[in-house]
Queue: 3 jobs
Job 1
Amino acid sequence: MSEYFNQIYHRVVSNPQVYLVPVVRVVGVFVVASIAWWVLNMVVATMKKRLGQRPFFQRNDYIFPLTRRAGHYSILILAGAKLVEFLHVSMLEKVFYALLVLLLASFVKSVFNHVVPVLERAIATRTETKMDDVILDLFRSLSGVIIYGTAIILALDLLGLNIMPLVAGAGVAGLAIGFAAKDTLSNLIAGVLLIIDRPFEVGDRIEVWSAPANSATWGDVIDIGLRATKIRATDNIVIVIPNNEIMRRDIINYTTITKEIRVRIPVGIAYEADVKRAKEAIVGIALELEWVMKDPPPKVVVKSFGDSSVNLEARVWISDPRRRIDTISHVTDRIKEVFQEQGIEIPYPKRDIFIKREETVSP
């Protein structure tokens, strides 16, 4: 060991420029980088002290830390590139550029983490639809996977590794996973289609076809996820429906265009009853409710003729679709009371029985 160091010592003494000049260059790079690092911190701190109290920078307080980080990365990249140039080591150069790609991926991910909240404030909060929030959340969740996945592939390629077997293996593994989790993947794809197609939004009231027996059959959308959608029924029951199931059925949305909907209420009266008088009574009952619209006004039509009744249908426009059941209940209850007071008969099945007697003639 001592002989080895003696050889190195004699080489340095005999030809000092060959060894000392690179060392001086490396030390110089570190000194310059350290000075640049210190100057950058001082400049950013001064800018923050002078401009930090302004409203724009208070709303976007990430600008100064992000600027400092970008400057640090730039110094590291320039210093590393200079060191690699001095050393002329091929493997070291590959490792440096691979680490550089991962470093840039980390910085890009930090930029995305700060840009998405800005987009939420600038776009999502100013639009009436809530799908923008869902899309931005999806973008935030997938951005890290895409950025780091791409960076790792590029870094492996820079190191000289053949990534094609890895890509092929990932494809085979993805195919196997796809067959094993086809239902989950189907729900994920359906979730993306729901976000793109937007048949309903968070807060919309839709029909629920998979509600438990003897429970409400409609509710409000409270969450649209990649795998499933959550709907809170009017019984305050949260129903989680897989997105794939939603895409296979008709979607009945009561609030997608407007909150005004028309409610149909069937009413039967006897054939002997005054139809005009019954219609006027039903219209008056409907107008007792404050959420019933006067334009267009309630309307009652003769729907059909039954075995023992004239079947009417009250068509009432309401301004709040969430009062649909309240409207039906109120009108139905009041019809019975008003019809009894005004002598309008509500029919029920009747049967007229005729007994025919045959007289026997005695011989």
Note: The chain has a mean pLDDT of 76.
Job 2
Amino acid sequence: MSFLTRRIAIDREIGHVPGHGLKPTLGWPHLVALGVGAIVGTGIYTLTGVGAGMAGPGVLLSFAIAGAVCAAAALCYAEMATLMPRAGSAYTYSYAVMGESVAWIVGWSLILEYTLVCAAVSVGWANHASVFVRDVLPGFPEALLNGPHVPGGIVNLPAVVIALAVGGLLSLGTRESATVNFILVIVKLTALAAFVIIALPGFNAAHFEPFSPNGWSSVGAEGVKLGILPAASLMFFAFYGFDAISTAAEETKRPERDLTIGIVGSMALCTLIYMVVAAAAIGASPPAEFSKSGEPLVYVMQSLGHDLVARVVAGAAVVALPTVIMVFMYGQSRVFFAMARDGMLPKVLSKVSAKSGTPVLVTLLTAAIAAVLGGFLTLKEIAELANAGTLAAFVAVALSMMLLRMREPARPRRFKTPLWWLVGPLAIVGCGYLFWNLPVKTQTYFLYWNLFGVLVYLVYGRVKSNLAKL
């Protein structure tokens, strides 16, 4: 039973060979852009409406609660990422601190998180892109713009196309992808700034009453959870993304400095952006109205009579939402890569292209899976299940940080989580509470996913890992 607790060394790699290493090409501006690119996306462009439908104006508190939990987790990530600047994120930290079996479960949860986020954002992008498709190609079949959950729908073709296109771009190289991401992030933030500036003159404080029509937590029709806390569990999807930065640790030029700036900086910036944009949207339009739209910010602009601006916002989403897919697909491929390099998954998945310095095969595999999921599932279902995987990873990172602080208090650390004895437990309790407020169906699916993962580990990972051969 030693396989349950065997651990990799914190200070050195185990079983890594030439052709399976990543090139350090990124600086802190790239990392901040990666974080902003991942965080500011479907959450603000699309899920704002869903959250407002669940919590009313109280969705502002939902954002604040989810942001506070993520902030605590971000500090834990910053310490572990600078301590172990390798690909793999929470999976790698868990492997070094808590052992192989826990690391497998965390890695398996990360696979769920990143793949589903790619699919969810593909669907969010498709909601905006479909508007332009209908205008440019009025005869385009509606059955190819919606998945089977919509009457008459067959497949969400735009979601499939964007997932595959981003996968192709990532295969070209990390620095090239990061540069494209940087440019698109500027486009995205400019559009959101324009939205706030134009929405503010129409601000009406009456739209904030009643502030919390469904209370902190309640049950609506068909057992659907409503209120501020269930909305926070969903809005949590809108905040994470900084964890994808930690997967870039091995490709960072100065990880001891750049990772801290990227993780903490992007989290602080995005929390401010979310609160301002959500407040402007609610002030300009009653939440009960724009919550029914798949493009809430576009709806708000249209309700104010700014049709041209509405199209600009929709266009910016079409251009910029792929940055979210790009960052999470990047993160997913690096988790796959790290697990394969450790022998936990087939070694072929850790093969790096000599030309681009990227794991091309695993990147394209991630794109294919995301394309299939995005083509056939709804945004809300995908986002909630992705949240379950992320919450598990956040708990693992906070626990790893705390255990290592107690086990090796004298170990040099480039970044130290302030008040670690408080921040760590807050991250764990907060994540646990958000998980509790996810739909029961989501919790059940997450359990099934991990039971299947345990079976895969017992059959393959347990006997094939590098440590099993030592």
Note: The chain has a mean pLDDT of 80.
Job 3
Amino acid sequence: MKNKVRIFFWTLFDFARTAFSVIIITVIYSKYFSNYVTGGKVWLWGLSVSVSMIITALLSPPLGAIADVSRNRKRFLLIFTSVTILCTALMFNVQKGDIILGMVLFIIANVGYEGGVVFYDAFLPNITEKKNLGRVSGYGFAMGYLGALAVLLIIKLLLPPQNSADYYFYIRLSFVVAAIFFLVFSIPLFLFVSEPDVKSKLRKGLIKNGIQKSVDTFKAIFFHQKYPSVSRFLLAFFLYNDAIITIIAFASIFASGLLKMTDAQIIYFFIIVQSTSIFGAFIFGIISDHIGPKTTISITLVIWLIVIAGAYIDKSIVGFYIVGLLAGLSIGSSQSCSRSLMALLTPKEREAEFFGFYDGLFGKSSAVIGPLVYGIVANISNQRFAVLAIGLFFLAGLIILQKVEVPKITSSNGITA
């Protein structure tokens, strides 16, 4: 099969999986669970997210190592994806007062979703040449944001007016729609994207071996400095990804609390962010292949610092929309270029293991510190100073990133980049 076709089917999984992230995590289930199921106990939603992230952070490195040893990334991805789809569909049964059921289903589904990303990302180095990692990663994220817009449009057409007697029935039905969307568009990857043809000699003791390998790799990266560029990049990624997650989590709170924006204005704001994210992931992916992912990430982090300054200084709704446009460009490009840089730094035959640290341990655990800092600073002073504090994460990540040494890429025609 031609690489372009395989790449398309690989990116289609990004298109599919955003149905879970946008409907369950961001827009519908989070509000339904917090406001309706628990009766306004928002902290239970935060607890559910934190528990699922901690579990994923702990599981991802050894699971990645196991997948590398067994060469069964697709099988692991299929298991995690199936668990997520099943639990998402079962959320239809979560009604008012079903707090434990709602929490358990979400935690299992989110562990499956976040854990599966480790194996999905590990396919990247095997479906394209190193010189094209940036644009291919960008294609994936662009397809993801396109999928988010598509499923949001479907749900918008599905839902009746909010004062309808059967409104919450259709809310619950939207979870089933998200599960079906994820299922349908993830199938091509499992059918048409093959595993690398590498045979492993290990047949027994996969779990023990996988755990031991992840422990040894952690020591090699952070204590023995066997992979200094990987350790520096992971630290930089931890800091600026923490800031990105925090901004996403508090954007609507900032908009409604300080700027007094209506729900309609906030929805339009997120449409702008999603739309520009598609453009940013696509364009900066191509730029990354010309100037390198490290330089491209540095540019996006500078844009993020401008976003922080704009949110702090400008108090108008129009200014916030402009800030949202820039943030959208930066979200897609920061994430896609980070994935391509990690693929470039990762040793061959250990992609899933290293992506376990990238997506799991560092990607998921970075969802803790930033929100905590934001909440404390906002409580002591106000949300504008909290935004400014998050800017320090971007700045620190940018500085550490400059110490990452990126290997040179030699293309098929012998030209070194």
Note: The CA atoms of residues 139 and 292 lie 16 Å apart.
